[in-house]
UniProtKB/TrEMBL annotation:
SUPFAM superfamilies: EAL domain-like. The lineage of its organism: Bacteria, Pseudomonadati, Pseudomonadota, Gammaproteobacteria, Pseudomonadales. Its main location: membrane. It comes from the Bacteria. It holds the Pfam family CSS-motif. One of its GO terms (molecular function) is cyclic-guanylate-specific phosphodiesterase activity. CDD domains: EAL (cd01948). Keywords: c-di-GMP, Cell membrane, Hydrolase, Membrane, Transmembrane, Transmembrane helix. It catalyses: 3',3'-c-di-GMP + H2O = 5'-phosphoguanylyl(3'->5')guanosine + H(+). This is cyclic-guanylate-specific phosphodiesterase.
Length: 523
């Protein structure tokens, strides 16, 4: 059923699609934020490494200057140069000690004065820098040593590792910075190691100093991207979820609208999926086809041919029955008018109308247009009003019915016997025909009480001078019973089922031929 509100697959889709949409938006948003966080950490890691190099270069510049100042004194007796050595310690901001060596032997120190110790140039990276994990004065305490030589003369200056550790910690407390000199490296814990340098899980960055032989490594531990997202993007993430939910709700609303019976009917109306089927109505006596009842069908693209009782109630409820009937009447005119010459004079065309039509004067124009499509007098238009829903008598209704009668349009009360219309009601609306409901016709030869009602209806119509049509005639017994009671018109599968235009026109032609053969014209 195209309009059933209980379609499981549709309601599941209505729930799943918005959920999927919300999740999709949130996942995309999270991925975007994750990518943004990675970029931010990458930029920060690089900035930290550059900043660390700048600071270390400044410190090393300071102790290198002290070494340059002392180099000319190398080779002179320690007693003579002791004072300048100490003076450099005092002057240099970062200088912890100064030393002079000659022929790879350290012979004078700012700390001990005259002193002897071998100097091995291979201990120094590029012969100039050595990151030590302590010396004889402060074992286990980090120390960065700078060596400057010229021939056999040379000066050595040192900086306390604490300066370096402080710098590493100050630059970015969240990041992990390491300084590497040759095989030795030191992190923010201030310990010098010479095992392989461990890599960083997030944003690993390594930058070399262009002035001195050291490298700074920077980066972040595993999970730092999510920690940054939590720290910085919390409100943004909240906004993202909020917008996602709004988008999901909008999607749900759209789906509801698109899947509502109203939208589905509107779509079908625009796609011209409602088409007329034609069922013959035969007259009393010779059973010639005296007319036709137009019955609406929905050619649904997925569900195929849909019976009207499955969608007409929705259309009546939503008010869409008005444009649907208007379009149906246009199609009837377009399809039947070209065959008008095959119709007997006064051929009946019955159109079903709903209660809502009776409050709308536009029905008059629709009828006028339909009649205008045929040669004058060729057809008789009958509007079939069901007795199941009684029409509220208003000024508009009376006005409309009066105008319709003036136009020659007749009114038939459909499904007669199933509602509670009174005699007053029949007179008020000047009903021309009563259509006996098929449930009574079906009882012919079966149920005595229903048969009694059927007889009463026929009698009543005679008394009120109304025409009578019996619908749902399926057997010859029913046909003969109704014929005996002079019922004006009969309709039912016995004479013909509702057919699309081509089938109906062919059947009409066949029926006319058979009738002509049965009644040869007099010479
Ligand atoms: P209805 O106006 O009483 O139409 C007669 C119904 O009885 C039709 O069903 C027809 O196919 C069926 N019928 C005719 N002869 C026989 C028979 O010998 N045996 C049986 N068992 N059924 C027979 P259908 O076409 O399914 O239409 C059902 C109802 O939908 C109609 O009842 C009418 O109330 C409504 N309908 C159909 N087309 C329209 C329309 O264009 N506008 C409005 N407002 N209602 C319509
Ligand atoms: Ca009808
Ligand atoms: Ca009926």
């Amino acid at each position: 059923m195209p309009l059933s509100p209980k379609r499981r697959s549709r309601s599941t889709a209505r729930v799943l699609l918005p959920c999927w949409w919300v999740s999709f938006q949130v996942i995309c948003g999270v991925l975007l934020l994750n990518w943004q966080a990675q970029r931010e950490l990458q930029a920060k890691a690089r900035f930290n490494a550059e900043h660390a190099i700048e600071q270390f270069d400044r410190v090393l510049d300071n102790i290198a200057q002290a070494a340059r100042n002392l180099l000319p004194l190398a080779g002179q007796p320690c007693e003579q140069v002791k004072l300048p050595l100490r003076e450099q310690v005092t002057r240099g901001t970062f200088v912890r000690s100064t030393n002079l060596f000659y022929d790879d032997t350290l012979y004078c120190s700012s700390l001990f004065g005259s002193y002897r110790e071998a100097v091995n140039p291979d201990d120094y990276t590029d012969g100039s820098l050595w990151l030590m994990d302590g010396n004889s004065v402060s074992p286990g305490h980090p120390l960065l040593v700078y060596r400057l030589s010229e021939g056999s003369k040379g000066a050595i200056t040192t900086v306390d590792g604490d300066h370096l550790t402080h710098l590493l910690r100050l630059i970015d407390p969240d990041s992990d910075l390491r300084v590497q000199v040759g095989q030795h490296w030191m992190g923010t814990d201030g310990r010098v190691r010479n095992d392989p340098l461990p890599g960083f899980a997030v944003a690993p960055t390594a930058l070399k100093s262009s002035h001195f032989s050291f490298t700074v490594h920077s980066g972040y531990p595993d999970g730092e991207v999510w920690r940054l997202m939590q720290r910085q993007y919390g409100p943004l993430f909240g906004l993202l979820v909020f917008l996602g939910v709004i988008a999901g709700a909008a999607c749900n609303w759209q789906l509801k609208r698109a899947n509502s019976p109203r939208a589905e009917l509107q779509r079908a109306l625009e796609a011209d999926e409602f088409v007329p089927y034609f069922q013959p109505v035969v007259r009393h006596g010779d059973y010639r086809w005296a007319g036709v009842e137009v019955l609406m069908r929905w050619i649904h693209p997925r569900d195929g041919l849909v019976r009207p009782d499955l969608f007409i109630p929705y259309a009546e409820h939503s008010g869409q029955i008005l444009p649907m009937t208007r379009r149906l009447m246009q199609q009837v005119a377009e399809q039947l008018a070209p065959h008008a010459d095959t119709f007997d004079e006064g051929f009946h065309i019955g159109i079903n109308v709903s209660a809502a039509h009776c409050q709308d004067l536009a029905l008059f124009d629709d009828c006028q247009r339909l009649l205008a499509a045929f040669p004058p007098g060729r057809i008789r238009l009958t509007l079939e009003l069901t007795e199941r829903t009684l029409i509220t008598p208003t000024e508009t209704t009376f006005n409309l019915f009066a105008k319709l009668h003036e136009l020659g349009v007749m009114i038939a009360l459909d499904d007669f016997g199933t509602g509670q219309s009174s005699l007053t009601y029949l007179r008020q609306f000047k009903v021309d025909y009563l259509k006996i409901d098929k449930s009574f016709v079906g009882m012919i030869g079966v149920d005595a009480l229903s048969l009694h009602i059927l007889d009463s209806i026929i009698e009543l119509s005679n008394k009120l001078d109304m025409g009578i049509v019996a619908e749902g005639v399926e057997t010859q017994t029913q046909r003969d019973y109704l014929a005996q009671r002079q019922v004006d018109f009969q309709q039912g599968y016995l004479f013909g089922k509702p057919l699309p235009l081509d089938g109906f026109i062919d059947a009409l032609a066949r029926q006319k031929k058979e009738a002509t053969v049965a009644q040869p014209s007099c010479p």
